[in-house]
Queue: 3 jobs
Job 1
Amino acid sequence: MAETVKPGDLDEDKYERSKRLEWFDLDKIQRTRVLVVGGGAIGNETVKNLILAGFRKITLVDMDRVVRSNLNRCIFFDEEDAERRRLKVEAIVEKARKLDKEVDIDYRTEMIQKLPEDFIPSYDLVLGCLDNVAARLHLNAHCYRHGIPYVDAATQGFVGKVQVVLPKETPCLECGMNKTHVKIMEERFSCTGEDVTFHVPKMAAEITTTSVVSAIQTRESIKLVLGMEKELIRNVFYYDGMRNVSEILELDRNPECAHHPVSEK
């Protein structure tokens, strides 16, 4: 006997439209433990996307505070947060819980490099939303070592990129680094003004680029969780909003990269 569906019943299920996708598995998504490192523009957008996609177990890491220049590209920040110089993670977590009261989201305010060795391996998936080369390489190294998928996202003005690092299957983030990246990594600087020996000029930011790059980062995360490895980005997704193009740039494993044992080369 066919089930009787009353008018409007389908509209009561928050994920009804997502469930129409044959490959969608809400249970797997809700059980996945996700670590998001970086609470700026990409971090804001990605946390929002993750929650709307159904992710429930999220931890956010960032030590910076909200300033007024964040407000034109960060959905979870407002004027009061900037006036109070509130911690970014506090503002994101509070408003993320309003977006979905069932989300289990918490935060850490230390540098990712200073957290315990067993912190990163306690997650199923790690997302990098950073503009700090040293922190990104730290995530890359620890994720590769422990076999945890890592999705790295970055923007500069109208340009953005996303790289999926799948241990033993793809090149890692460090494979694509050059001497300039290494030089920047070796310089010591702080976004908070503490213990400063070097300052990096602020990078241009553009909200539509952030939206596109964050959407790709979230989409690849969903693929990873649902076992769609054949459909993953296996090189570097490159986006140029000024030229209105996106393309996949090939990236080979660096034979000198320490993260790839001889058996992988």
Job 2
Amino acid sequence: MTDDLPRIAAALERLAPAPMPAPDFAAAEAFVWHTAPDRLEPVVRVSRVDLGLLVGVDRSRDTLLQNTRHFAAGLPANNALLWGARGMGKSSLVKAVHAAVRAEGHDLKIVELSREDLPSVHRLLAHLRAAPCRFVLFCDDLSFSHDDQHYKSLKAVLDGGIEGRPENVLFYATSNRRHLMPRDMIENERSTAINPSEAVEEKVSLSDRFGLWLGFHPCSQDDYLEMIRGYCAAHGVAVPEDRLHAEAVEWQATRGARSGRVAWQFFCDLAAREGVAVSS
């Protein structure tokens, strides 16, 4: 029996782990939330691009930047959902805006939360609520399937329950879907429910809880080329304009799409062929 005590104690520790120690928010400007065990890991270097290199998203850029400035200054601000075309800079914009607001002198932190860890968000909010800093809580590529109950946890961030959303926390999410779920799932639930409108109202209304909806759409060829020119200028890659144009158009044709991501991938290939090192 004595030999079993350490094993039993270890099992109990896994079921009810010790509380997470108070995070050192002075350690970094960015953190990633992990569970099992709960912890906020500081990010030494955030992977992001300069705000000025994001082309074709001027309205969304200006709106999100102003909203974040308001929040950092202690003024009212809205949670934001950045939705739309893949590879058009949704997550890049969030990180670039965070950097721009910090450069203006605000001690604003960003915390990344994965969709899979949404059920633990109430524990994360308890730590952030008690902190002296202000936080952008960021969830990238947020979406839900028909049997996914994680969306209920998201309401703790958007509405805050009986305590309300922490005054020092703002939530930004990106998604390819405006309503955070597939359209065929919405239509299926409408057609099979006893009360079709009530069947999907709870899930569809989740996106309505975001005060800002910022749409991202496929870019034009002019915007695509402008993105590449911006990357070349920022990283010192000099090639003739006619060659740049021809190779960039050929690259997008092989990919069958134009986007900020495709522009960056072409630029990385171009920079490598020109012998220029680029840090992503």
Job 3
Amino acid sequence: MSNIERTSHELDHRIVGDDMQCVEITLDPQETVVAEAGTMMMMDEGISMKTIFGDGNGQEQGFMSKLLGAGKRVLTGESLFMTTYTNDSNVRRTAWFAAAYPGKIMALDLRDFGQRLICQKDSFLCAAKGVSIGIAFQKRLGAGLFGGEGFIMQKLEGDGQVYIHAGGTTVERQLVPGETLRVDTGCLVAMTQDVEYDIQFVGGIKNTLFGGEGLFFATLKGPGHVWIQSLPFSRLADNIIAAAPRAGGRGKEEGSVLGGLGRLLDGDN
């Protein structure tokens, strides 16, 4: 545990579930959790919900500062607004949050990672009040153009707890200085600020045309921590679209014996 004194609200939590997890946040009186819009699952009576305009750190800001923070979030493809949940009662209350697709939730204390994490734009779920949710520009042109997440990723700064969602199963790797890891560009969930991130061309005609892994790898060079997901949402969405029925109600199995039998049993002509 880090010895850095915490200025953010200190949250108690319980992660529930296996492959489709949710997180229960227990709030002491007047404690607040900041969440991405649309992630709330349920909450106890006595918790007040407030929509805020800005980067979600909960500090007093002028209108222009709030506008700049909101504008940064738009660049990452997120909503202009975030939502805070504050326990206004005099006893402990709980609020529950969940992501929109199957995966794992990681509870991370920013004090353990240099008070800053870089993560992909749709992985942030919620955080303690006092954490700033901003943007991180990729410095290298290749990483920006071909990195799967564009020029911009989310930056979580502060000394509080954050909750990040990853698709499928999560693998954490600690990279030693100079160690390089190559991953599919969509599988990167988060990394510490010291990790060098770049893009490498797969190479080879057969690899490029028939490898099925895209044209580029993300290269991550230590030292630092990286978190990798086994099922990026983009891959899940592509598989669902590929398996969805085509126009006219016929699916991927069109022309096969099993496909014809299925349509016969369903009453289709």
